[in-house]
Design a protein that fits this description.
By secondary structure, the chain is α/β, with parallel strands linked by helices. The chain has helices spanning 10-21, 34-41, 63-71, 92-95, 113-119, 133-143, 156-183, 192-205, 214-217, 220-233, 238-252, 255-262; strands at residues 2-6, 25-30, 53-56, 78-81, 101-106, 124-128, 147-150. Helix 4 links the parallel strand 4 and strand 5 (101-106).
Length: 263
């Protein structure tokens, strides 16, 4: 497949590197950051020609402006953005040229292009497009070792909220755990097997069936002792700990018991 990229940042670079590894051809790399363009071009070979798909891999707030800009010189092929939150309307200037448009959002993290390319295989990819572009994007995703799935355009914001909770909020709670472990004089690394088994159980059993711990058991005395220790040793995190305790109690149906400990 012939692929072009407009926006040589972390996601765009990862897609380029993963595509080359999967045997696809890169027809062009372009973008406003010329240094980033040059850096990515130094890592791949260009097979000039008409792309089957141009991935517009710029930030969400730049998509409309960039789409309007490149629509004026659009030549051929489909245009696809990689935003998980935005619908296809942001590519309307390109769609008005007659091009097919879609979105391709990998459920993966992209700290940089190289690491992002490594994390793509095995990840799921949300695809929003009509045929024949949908099938083309499914084929491309599978070639990268990804698991594609359909996502309705009007569900993207809700889906992206779910992705944010799964990735970002998990990291927030791990940051809280790290601060508490360190305050207790315990290395954070000690929690790794615990966290990994908890995540595995959540996906194999479902989050609520996999829930364990004093809040899930309604163990008020233990929760009270935890709260007291936090207030004594690291009071700046007490509010977040209490909020998570309330949310866990509500989902575990132990809120009547735990409510007293939180007062």
């Amino acid at each position: 497949m012939d692929i072009a990229i407009y926006g040589p940042g972390r996601v765009g670079g990862a897609i380029v590197l993963a595509a080359v590894r999967a045997g696809h051809h890169i027809t062009a790399v372009d973008g406003r950051n010329r240094d980033a363009v040059a850096k990515l071009l130094s890592q791949v070979s260009i097979d000039a020609g008409q792309p089957d798909i141009t991935f517009v891999t710029v930030t969400d707030d730049a998509l409309v402006e960039v789409a309007t800009d490149i629509a004026a010189r659009w030549d051929n092929g489909a245009a696809v953005h990689v935003s998980g939150a935005l619908g296809l309307s942001v590519l309307e200037p390109i769609a008005q040229t007659g091009a097919d448009t879609g979105s391709f959002h990998p459920l993966a993290t992209f700290p940089d292009s190289l690491q992002g390319a490594k994390s793509l295989p095995g990840s799921w990819v949300a695809i929003t497009a009509s045929e024949p572009l949908r099938s083309l994007l499914f084929e491309f995703a599978i070639s990268l070792g990804c698991q594609p799935f359909d996502l309705e355009d009007d569900m993207k914001a809700l889906y992206h909220a779910a992705a944010s909770v799964a990735a970002n909020y998990t990291t927030t709670t791990l940051d809280l755990a790290e601060r508490l472990f360190l305050a207790a004089g315990v290395p954070f690394e000690a929690a790794r097997p615990l966290v990994e088994s908890a995540v595995t159980n959540a996906f194999e059993m479902g989050p609520m069936r996999a829930m364990t711990g004093p809040v899930a058991r309604g163990d008020v005395a233990t929760v009270e002792s935890q709260l007291s220790a936090i207030r004594d040793h690291i009071p700046e995190v007490i509010e977040l700990f209490e909020q998570l305790t309330r949310a866990t109690a509500a989902r575990s149906e132990t809120e009547p018991e735990i409510r007293g400990a939180l007062q």
